[in-house]
């Protein structure tokens, strides 16, 4: 993975920059000892590492603004960091950069049930947002699987999704306002507890901009009343084509499940060996969950089972209790852990049109043989967001490179069939150099022009999202 | 009027333009400051590019009539969940609304509270920027975080950053059944209380509107028949108190009622109409007492109190004018507009924005039609326009 050559002039003035940062931050909030900056050398894409020049942990919007103003004046690149759970290298630093961590910004500022919003500082973890309102019967809908650890700031930067987004949407559909600090230290208030923007849709473009347009310090999020209940049905099929057709029929029938999860045979076998959830040994397995009152759930699951029966399932198991629901979800929830038992794996994140599912699964199987690496598929079938897990051995020379090549081939396939490189993890450094597969130079140019407006000097997380050669001229400036 | 028939011709027309362009779909939504420029119609770019009912996705050329889109979707029992209003009812006019116009205005109806706005259903765009370059963003899948989201930026940018040539949507199935629970004789306090209670319930209300003129609060439920009946019963119990509660389950009656709310029919005869977006709680508190006391106007309240349409007749506006030494209805409306936007800018009220949706050209030319943005955002907006339209030829001045 190429990263830009660090700016020697910036590294040379480290002491000066650190001293200036220490002037505007409380004691302990500036980390510059090389032994300590290592803690920030990578995020969850741990294959790539580089300690930053320094890391800062501001505790207020004013402190964030002060930090950015100094770095702007000094020409120091800044890499914003939430909880460091990015699977795409979104928070990976360069040797000449300052990591701006928002972890200390974790307070709930306001809970407003009448307007169904919560305002939090952006370093607060995703799950603890729901935690702040669930006793009163509310929840925050986006639920990325890292939700115990991941920060709202990172969710906004990556426009994170989750298992329930088929019904509730992703971060951008649940974000109503932000306090944003741009690279020159300007504090901008956008949106609020109301439902649409007056002028341009600033929230729309900030959400998913991977920390390249500004640092979000506070966010107003939509909260929803919890449904009365939820219950899944599990179904197994002899072929993934049939499972795919069943998904399409469920969607067409007008049921709006809260989740439709898909697992293929390699994944089913791995989870069975690991968790023993009692899944059938079949080619494709679906877990479909619906919400509502007990009677509403019965009505929807009845219809779903009726549709499933038309596709000759080898197994059809409706949950009748909390315990049965937990048993059905047990395997799915342990899928990543189960794959980890088999060795190292790389988790991909492409999205495809649901109709292309059988073709893509077949091709992935063929490519698995070509590359000589095992692969298992587990994904959100309702929206076509795939997470193929490629197995490799990090200790075998050449395996990681083969795995990367296989991953790139799968993502290219996703684009080829009308999908995209990343559905919810983001581009970061991981898919940066594949952007040319999905976009023409003119499309990337249009996106980079937006960054030019927010951050003309390209100091904020500059080596991400765009292929390095495409952004080279701008970053040099 | 220029009327290209293909995206390539559209790009050529923009690239070759010698001066400002006035971008049109069906021309049924003349909202914003009047634009001086050569008319460029996108209506020639028409037709469905791709429709996959099983994937709930539609890709369609921007000039396609909205009616055609809705007809095609209805054939498969699907729809655009965001329920775009037909501005012809409020603004008059006889053009054919296009899907591109809907996107350019981010036009979203009562179901916004549950299913999201137009920008939430929009998953892909193709557009021609001010240089004449064709740019793609998003795609045809629901989950996509590849690169910046210019899709949402284009929604609601009213042709000032680019001319839409193609748009892609996430769709939803038309539910089997619909019912509206109506609370009668509701004053402001009762109405907001009822809407807030309904939205805080788990019953998935897909429309919550108050028609002050009739004293009615309407709460819509959609889904499978059994579920709708169950939720209607629960909601009815939730609203028990002063004021009769009725339930309407007829499909036709429901369609009529929500179309009327969507299209703000109650204010169709008013000369001046504003659209105010605020937090429901702030809306409930009402406009500043001085404005409430001094101005006479009519309202339609949607989005569970988050959206308020304010209508003034000529007589009502003229009545507002003399208090401030103004001479006529337009002068009164100008004064009211300024007062309204000043209230929105007051942070103590929690923020929001007011847009003049209907008024004569003279009025729209005299005031900032859209809520002026705080200085840092206004600077970013200028920066964006300079990047996407360096010659300043795309609907210049329309958004201020």
Biggest sheet architecture of chain B: 5 strands, antiparallel
Shape of chain B: globular
CATH topology of the domain at 230-336 in chain A: Alpha-Beta Plaits
Helix content of chain A: 25-40%
H/I helix tally of chain A: 18
Organism (chain A): Rhodovulum steppense
InterPro entries (chain A): FAD-bd_oxidored_4_C, FAD-bd_PCMH, FAD-bd_PCMH-like_sf, FAD-bd_PCMH_sub2, FAD-linked_Oxase-like_C, FAD-linked_OxidoTrans_Type4, Oxid_FAD_bind_N, Vanillyl_alc_oxidase_C-sub2
Pfam family, one (chain A): FAD_binding_4
Keywords (chain A): FAD, Flavoprotein, Oxidoreductase
Give a structural overview:
Chain B: Keywords: FAD, Flavoprotein. Chain B: Residues 1-174 form the FAD-binding PCMH-type domain. Chain B: This is Glycolate oxidase FAD binding subunit. The complex is a heterodimer of chains A (477) and B (400). In chain A, the strands form four sheets. Chain A has a seven-stranded antiparallel β-sheet with strand order 15-12-14-13-17-18-16, with helices on both faces. A five-stranded antiparallel β-sheet of chain A has the order 5-6-10-8-9. By secondary structure, chain A is α+β, with helices and mostly antiparallel strands. Chain A has helices at 8-12, 14-24, 34-37, 61-74, 126-133, 152-158, 165-168, 202-206, 240-252, 265-275, 294-309, 322-333, 335-342, 357-371, 399-416, 435-438, 441-454, 468-476; strands spanning 30-31, 54-56, 78-81, 98-101, 108-112, 117-121, 138-139, 175-181, 187-191, 215-222, 224-225, 230-237, 259-264, 284-291, 315-318, 344-347, 375-380, 388-392. Chain B has 400 residues and is α+β, with helices and mostly antiparallel strands. Chain B has three domains: 7-173, 2-Layer Sandwich (Uridine Diphospho-n-acetylenolpyruvylglucosamine Reductase, domain 3); 177-262, 2-Layer Sandwich (Alpha-Beta Plaits); 265-366, Alpha-Beta Plaits (2-Layer Sandwich), CATH 3.30.70. Chain B has helices at residues 7-16, 66-74, 87-91, 99-104, 112-115, 118-121, 150-154, 188-200, 225-238, 251-262, 280-285, 289-294, 314-320, 329-344, 361-366, 375-388, and strands at 21-24, 38-41, 48-52, 57-61, 78-79, 122-128, 134-138, 163-170, 172-173, 177-183, 207-211, 216-223, 245-248, 272-278, 298-302, 307-312, 352-358. In chain B, the strands form five sheets. Chain B has a five-stranded antiparallel β-sheet. The two termini of chain B are 24 Å apart. Chains A and B meet through strand 9, helix 8, helix 9, helix 11 and helix 17 of A and strand 7, helix 7, strand 9, helix 8 and helix 9 of B.
